[in-house]
Amino acid sequence: MRKLLTLTAVLAAALTTSALAQQPKNVFTVVRPTQWGAQNFNPFAPGDQHLLPTNSAIYESLFYVNTLNGKVTPVLGTKYTWSKDNKTLTVSTRPGVKWHDGSAFSARDAAFTFNYLKQYPALDTSAIWKNGLAGARATNDTTLVLTFSKANTTIFPYIAGQMIVPEAIWSKITSPLTETNARPVGTGPFTFDVYSQQALRVLKNPNYWMKGQPYIDAVVWVSTNSNDAALLKLLKGEADYGYVGQADPVNGYQKKGPNNQFWWPVTGDNYLYFNTTKAPFSDPAFRRAVSQAVNTANVAEKAYAGAAKAAHSSGIIPGQQAQWLPAGTPSLKYDAAAADTALTRAGYRKNAQGVRLGKDGKPLPTFKILVGAGWTDFITMAQVVGGDLKKIGLNTQIDQQAWSSYAGGLQTGTFDMGISWGWGGGPTPYYLFNQSFGPEYSAAVGKTAPSNLSRYTNPAVTAALTQFQSTSDAAAQKKAMATIVKTVMADMPWLPLTDRSEFSNYSTVRFTGFPTAQNPYNSGTADDTAGARLMYLNVKPK
């Protein structure tokens, strides 16, 4: 109790006198491992520019699409249907919703929001209009009709996740890029209260459309300057929740208190990318053999002490495998002897000294493995990979680079091998494969590729991606996905190394209702997302 009182005193010092006149009873406290900037609640501004509650507590989207399993949760939209040609999306919007200023929400606000993105293209960061949206109109107060120039059903998560703003307010804002929106008006479960350099608070919306929720009276975010500082607040009982990365969450957090829990759902993977524009990585047989020589289970154990597992070599995350991984598709099995034999068979024999030779008979060079400077998990992965490849006669060197050089090397194609996360993802594997291997996401060496880091394309994959996005038929999409998985696993333009998780840590001392593996109602994110909104709606005081 003393620890909670201490935190209350800290917040009292940070928050203004006017705010202290309101004393919410059940306050849910979130600690974050970083500082924040100016008072900005612009939902169109990038996430590193606006403050935390903007898109998680204040503004709302039409739907929430869970990236773990693709489940769609209605928010301001209640249902949606595609036309037979998949060029018209009709959304029913929720009646009886009020903006924070008391005015009524309608489908006209949603139509305005999408047309506002067209009016100011810099706001359309998901490229909704560039990817086929041709028109947005409200046919009445509860019906939004979106028309498309081409069939592209995979655009739905971006439509669903767009934060909706009130036309009455934003129609008067002519400089939305620089608008700070200091007193935000949304439809969300909380309203902005006060902000200081130490704390930020939102209060329960008494007129929220979801009757009986939220169960808490306020959410307070407390800033720190590091993961260690944020973790300490959790351990001391000064916070109920924290999105905090740790090397060993079991021993570093869970076992240090009976109410300490964590749920780190897998939302992506870490990969060893091969630069397919450079020999010998341009040879699929070489890439397959190298992939088979790496013990990914050992990579995961060494890098994350058991907190993460080896990734499936398809790249499909566990939560999506049941629906999208073709039946009977095994993960690539580690076998150094088989890899050694495969390299020789492919024309890469060894000399008397055990050095691997190229097809020209000359010794292969020492290959660099690009990682971020000081990123201990990636460095550890590179060390294990290098040790495994040494066993089959390949020499490697770890190349640590600062962020700009690291990202620049990956995107301009000047690396040999590189370790990074999947530069794409979504509620189905389509989003990962499309952004990773779509021709439009690639570029010539020296030019910046948005996300196709391997610079790998294959006509079969490209055609299957097009087929997937042009239909809303589940069977047709599964058939397309089977083609993609089969082709990618045969060519191995990358090697999925380890699962990559969110870092959801919480204490059940005062609250219950957190998302868990048994109840994964969001994807474990607590940043400024619609998924975090679900957590703030579902946590309950004990």
TrEMBL record:
- Residues annotated as signal peptide: 1-21
Which intervals of the chain form a coiled coil? none
Domain Solute-binding protein family, residue spans? 71-439
In the UniProt record, does the keyword Signal occur?
yes
Keyword field: Signal, Transport
Pfam family of the protein (one): SBP_bac_5
Which species is this record about?
Deinococcus petrolearius
Keyword Transport recorded? yes
Q: Which domain of life is it from?
A: Bacteria
Question: Member of which family?
Answer: Belongs to the bacterial solute-binding protein 5 family.
The name on file for this protein is ABC transporter substrate-binding protein
User: Sorted alphabetically, which CDD domains does this protein's record hold?
Assistant: PBP2_TmCBP_oligosaccharides_like (cd08509)
